[in-house]
Amino acid sequence: MRAKLVTSLVFLIGATAAASAHHGWGSYDSAKKFTIEAPVEMIAWQNPHAHVMLKYQDATWEITLAPISRMQNRGLSEEMLKAGTVITAEGYPSTRREHEMRAERITVGGKVFEMR
């Protein structure tokens, strides 16, 4: 019985630490919300978050999107973000990496998709 309790506690602590590390959005400046509208250069459709690359003001920006399952549940698919598709991304710049944004929402083909 004691071994099960210890194992359960270790698992719980590990899962909590992993979730906390993954969902830390403290490295984005929520006071500096801005918008980028540009064609998709490249997409990385992978977990835990998809990313698109956009060329904006002579720089390539990496836009961090929501988890794939959330986007699919809201009607956004990988095919909608093909290279060349113009999107609008609204979000916050990274405080650690130049030209990185965490998107709050994106607009594709006139439709708004919430990332949170």
TrEMBL record:
It comes from the Bacteria. This is Uncharacterized protein.
